[in-house]
Design a protein that fits this description.
Layout lengths: L6 H6 L1 H17 L8 H7 L5 E6 L3 E2 L5 E2 L6 E7 L2 E2 L5 H10 L6 H5 L10 E8 L2 E9 L6 E8 L17
Parallel strand pairs: 4-6
Antiparallel strand pairs: 1-4, 2-3, 4-5, 6-7, 7-8
């Protein structure tokens, strides 16, 4: 997989999608999310686990046609589940991405600008994704087995806009 490909070209590659879905199925079975029955059918409706395709920070065009400067992010990532790449980036995937970027020796820690922080320290990670950007802050303890910090901030799109009318007695 070219770690700089956008979701359109990744989605168009049926071999890549099938391979990533196969990995999802193996992981879902190994961790007990799927315990029998028709695994392929179960994975068509099950969101977890996600597969995240990470790459080094780069300048790219988000789905909103906004240009995201590669210097403004630390990692470029795409998320896939249920045979489709997401146009956004799930919060649980972002937290996981933040955490794994702080564990030395992992692929995301090798891809993220600045690498993993020293054991026991947290760091902020700006993730570029198809919908825009988000920021996670994470860290693990000295053993690398316990999360000591995991936070998330999003800026991908406006969720609400408008006017709220509140009765005077509630002000």
């Amino acid at each position: 997989i070219d770690n700089e490909e956008g979701i359109e070209s990744l989605q168009a590659n049926a071999g890549v999608v099938a391979m990533l879905e196969s990995i999802r199925s193996v992981v879902a079975t190994a961790v007990g999310l799927v315990t029998g029955g028709n695994i392929a059918e179960e994975m068509r409706v099950r969101v977890n686990p996600f597969v995240l395709v990470v790459g080094t920070a780069r300048t790219y065009t988000a789905l909103s046609d906004e240009t995201i400067d590669g210097e403004s992010i630390d990692l470029f990532s795409r998320c896939m589940c249920r045979w489709a790449f997401s146009k956004a980036y799930p919060a649980s995937g972002a937290i996981g991405t933040g955490v794994v970027c702080t564990i030395a020796g992992t692929i995301p820690a090798e891809m993220v600008r600045g690498g993993a922080p020293p054991a026991g320290k947290a760091r902020k990670i700006r993730v570029g994704h198809p919908g825009g950007t988000l920021e996670a802050e994470a860290g693990v303890d000295e053993s690398g087995l316990k999360v000591i910090r995991a936070t998330l901030g999003r800026t991908a799109r406006i969720l609400m806009e408008g006017t709220a009318f509140v009765r005077g007695q509630h002000i």
